[in-house]
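User: Predict the structure for this protein chain, please.
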Amino acid sequence: MKTTIIITACLITAIHVNAQSVDWHRLTSLPHLYINTFSGEDITSKSWDVWAEMWLVDENDCIDHEYSVAIRGRGNSTWNLYKKPYRIKFQKKKRLLGQERANAKKWTLLTNHSDKTLMRNALASYIGELCGQTFTPAAKFVDLTLNGSYRGTYQISDKIDVRKKRVDIAEQEHPLTPESNITGGYLLEADGFADFKEGVNGFRTARTGIPVRIHYPDDDELERKQTDYIRQYVNRFENRLFSPDFRDPQRVRIMGSLPAATSPS
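Assistant: Here is the predicted structure, written as structure tokens:
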């Protein structure tokens, strides 16, 4: 019965698309993603969205049609390469890659442009899964055609954010009260571009000067005492990591005893 329902859904979608006299199909054995911007313009900015229509032809030639999605550029150094990475945003949350993946609006299209195999990111995620990591970014390969121009093979992946089936950590209260627990969770990035305001939504570690960007709590919710707390916690971790007794389980355990609110060091 389940198989019949799936086939029927595919047929209905195909009939809808054929009614528009458009032939969306795969060019290779990979799924194919078609994106047409309403204005016909290319994606040239990471700062603003361009609205578009999207069709995803899956491995079974079923077509998933989205009438209106937002697309913009993404990445740092990768944005300067010839093959551009993108971020797509649906108007409603969507399980783009099935029930085992997140129900979210935002997804990324990675180029893997500097990797001739196109597989290293996906392989790293797979190894992470084998090692039992709680979360590893999605890795589904598709061919991409943007405004009628074939752009090559891309990887659909998760946008790294705090939610179930992504970075599933405890969300802190907002606004904070004197009783609020600010010990977690936090989403941090070792940000080589230092794209943050020092002491506001990021910091450099005291021992090695590694730039750390705070992505969660969000900038408009992050308070100074949270920044101070996580900065001191990371500094304690780094000091312990580089100490001669880093293998001592008793001394390492002390790292977790940092109180919820301390003065800046």
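Residues 51 and 70 are 5 Å apart (CA to CA).
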